[in-house]
Amino acid sequence: MIGLPAVARDTYWVGVNDHETDLFEALWPLPYGVSYNAYLVVDNKIALIDAVKGHFLADHLGKIRALLPAHKSLDYLIINHMEPDHTGAIDILRSVFPHMTLVGNKKTLEMLRAFYGADSACLEVGDGDELDLGTHRLQFHLTPMVHWPETMMTFDATTGVLFSGDAFGGFGAVDRGLFDDEVNLELMQREMLRYFTNIVARYGQMVIKAIEKLRPVPLRVVAPTHGTVWRRNPSLPVELYARWSAQECDPTVAVIYGSMYGNTYRLVEVAARALTERGLAPVVHDIARSHASHVVADLWTCKGLILACPTYNTGLFPPMESLLALLENKLLKNRLLGFVTSYAWAGGARKALEAFAQRLSLEVVPPVVEVKGAGTAQDLEQCALLAAHLAERISS
Ligand SMILES: Cc1cc2nc3c(=O)[nH]c(=O)nc-3n(C[C@H](O)[C@H](O)[C@H](O)COP(=O)(O)O)c2cc1C
């Protein structure tokens, strides 16, 4: 069928592009949309590998039907991941293809019953098990907690395609190109980092384990459930996910601030300028206006973070408080922090920032700049000094 790219021999993309959902997981903006990638392997037996979100069933089903040989039906649905953006279509799919067997591991099948009831034929597979489709041999690799407990990957030993589930995935619809040799890689990598940081990052250690486990697999194509399919450079998404999971950083700085009346901002401006003069032009975000999904993605690869905000009702300015909660949930590590705060009477933000650093065992680079009101010329000098110290530490 026209418009259904072949990922490998007998293997077709039957996913859908979603430009309708504003917020992925009702949380994360999708300026470039998102794709739910699913794949059909047409062999003696026909296997659908992952499905799509329920709303997009008609589109998905149309693509599957266009590829099914006459008088053939789906034999298997391989479920690499139970999250509803890949399984929402299951209920109807199994009524359209009543003889289809659902394939998953023990945890998948438990979840399947919980989400969609038990009325289908199921095949439970374990780590290393194979399913022979005729000429294609599918091997199952259990990779738990990337980012749900049942996550697994399916490797087609005949074509070298790794159907990796959410691992190595990214935001961004694939209607401007499905493959890594067709797309604006810079944009797709940014959206991939945003997907990684917002969806998967907390489970970085499990991603690293999965990558280690997959090292011996001779993969030729990486086909995740979201975003770009990697056929020219299949090792790149693996390297990127490994690096982001390990929280390896670049020698760069992010300045994240909130400011109601400009007092904190005046201090931040000086620190940012001083960093720029040292060749470390920082990425700067106003946390009240930049969506946290962009902020977290942008700071993820920065070694240095300047966090700046006023005291608000004895604690942190609320958008900063929620950003720090997100970072704590993602088990942020390996960063150098700088703090800038302003207050009017008893303060509180500084204490909260220091408690955050302590809980995460992150080093705070001096001086901590804490200013009553607008701040004096000496306070501004302290900001420049903080920038200088941070720059020294990062470059050393
Ligand atoms: C709603 C609100 C609550 C505040 N709560 C506190 C507080 O609990 N303790 C304090 O010392 N200052 C408090 N302040 C004062 C601010 O921290 C102070 O004015 C600061 O300079 C504001 O910085 P900004 O101009 O960067 O927003 C509060 C200000 C506002 C508007």
TrEMBL record:
CDD domains: flavodiiron_proteins_MBL-fold
InterPro entries: Flavodoxin/NO_synth, Flavoprotein-like_sf, Metallo-B-lactamas, ODP_dom, RibonucZ/Hydroxyglut_hydro, Rubredoxin-O_OxRdtase
GO MF entries: electron transfer activity; FMN binding; metal ion binding; oxidoreductase activity
SMART domains: Lactamase_B
Residues in Flavodoxin-like domain copies: 253-391
Pfam families in alphabetical order: Flavodoxin_1, ODP
Entries under PANTHER family matching the protein: ANAEROBIC NITRIC OXIDE REDUCTASE FLAVORUBREDOXIN (PTHR43717:SF1)
Family per record: In the N-terminal section; belongs to the zinc metallo-hydrolase group 3 family.
Name of the featured protein: Flavorubredoxin
